[in-house]
Amino acid sequence: MRNLLVTGGAGFIGSNFVHYVVENTDLHVTVLDKLTYAASREAIESLPSERVSLVVGDIADAAVVDPLVASHDAVVHYAAESHNDNSLNDPSPFVQTNIIGTFTLLEAVRRHGVRFHHISTDEVYGDLELDDPQRFTESTPYNPSSPYSSTKAGSDLLVRAWVRSFGVEATISNCSNNYGPWQHIEKFIPRQITNLIDGVRPKLYGAGLNVRDWIHADDHSSAVMTILEKGAIGETYLIGADGEVNNLDTVKLILRLMGHDENDFEHVTDRAGHDLRYAIDSTKLRTELGWTPRFQDFESGMSDTIRWYRENEAWWRPKKAAIEAQYAAQGQ
Ligand code: NAD
Ligand code: DAU
């Protein structure tokens, strides 16, 4: 394997993966990214041009995808519409990119016999009760709640069918909530950090008892690289770092680390169909492929993330007013 095609490599997790590949391997990376509102050219432009190139294009455009896939040894597929709240306002780009885009890539890897790794989410499994002793495993039935998670579930099922029916050499990973640098400020953690920098109180949906299972984006990257190198074709691996925290405690942590009173937040309108709890059991990945997460101290990871947003205001500042206006229109 010498040449990787990384779709969505200018987004939050994809760009962290591209950095990881450059720092930890000698592979060449081609990023295929449509540069939607969620992308950041800046996130990858500092990388050496002999290691990383960017093709601006749509994964649902077969004329772009086919020759690119043909000239690479493996595809790592991150590109997606990724934000639940946006999917509630307008599901259409989610169906187009997450389902038709994945279909277009699968047809290209089938035609050219190229290895495929599909990046997915724990949200395909729906949610858990707060006191449920079980966590999600690779055999948990699919039960997605939102337009976003249902299109991700659909894309996973396409991958499974292309493996079984056409012998495509694919693996799938379903990861929990990521945090780290370059995450769009529409998302929970960066939204609250940048609100506090602006002197605005953090906004908690509903009572804030919803639990998310946080993992640092670098740990997601090391897990994906492990699966690409050692994963068994046709298999699904769950990625998680035992990071369950409810949103109320996360907001309190951010407030404390940024020097504010822990109770200085406000409750806003809850998300429709809001999943209660996600929790990943990553035993299969750890025991079969020997992966372990490195960032298990959420407080220190959060401190680094707060510092990153303080130091990179020039990147997020131009997006902030429009994002907050959109949330305000929804009472959020
Ligand atoms: P993101 O929204 O930050 O980035 C998505 C990237 O995909 C952007 O660069 C965007 O321009 C690109 N893109 C969108 N539509 C495209 C199209 N039609 N053609 C080409 N490029 C297109 O998303 P993210 O949070 O980095 O998530 C990346 C992947 O990881 C997604 O597949 C998501 O489902 C999955 N995932 C995310 C999380 C999380 O916590 N954010 C957790 C588990 C899995
Ligand atoms: O679990 C993996 C998923 O994590 C990924 O598949 C998605 O792409 C990613 O966006 C993320 O989905 P969530 O919906 O969990 O993330 P989000 O950052 O939007 O919200 C995290 C939690 O915080 C959720 O319970 C909603 C809540 N929330 C969110 C915002 C934006 C708030 O309480 N206040 C907010 O302002």
TrEMBL record:
Name all NAD(P)-binding domain ranges. Answer: 5-303
Q: List UniProt keywords, sorted A-Z.
A: Lyase, NAD
- Give the protein's recorded name: dTDP-glucose 4,6-dehydratase
**GO:BP terms for this protein?**
nucleotide-sugar metabolic process
Q: Give the EC number(s) under which this enzyme is classified.
A: 4.2.1.46
Enzyme kind, highest EC tier: lyase
The cofactor required is:
NAD(+)
- Family per similarity comment: Belongs to the NAD(P)-dependent epimerase/dehydratase family. dTDP-glucose dehydratase subfamily.
Q: Which Gene3D superfamilies does this entry report, sorted A to Z?
A: NAD(P)-binding Rossmann-like Domain, UDP-galactose 4-epimerase, domain 1
The molecular function terms of the Gene Ontology recorded here are: dTDP-glucose 4,6-dehydratase activity
* UniProt cross-references to Pfam families, sorted A to Z: GDP_Man_Dehyd
Q: Which organism is it from?
A: Nocardioides terrae
Sorted alphabetically, which InterPro entries does this protein's record hold?
dTDP_Gluc_deHydtase, NAD(P)-bd_dom, NAD(P)-bd_dom_sf
| Reaction(s) this enzyme catalyzes, per UniProt | dTDP-alpha-D-glucose = dTDP-4-dehydro-6-deoxy-alpha-D-glucose + H2O
Matching NCBIfam families: dTDP_gluc_dehyt (TIGR01181)
Q: Which domain of life is it from?
A: Bacteria
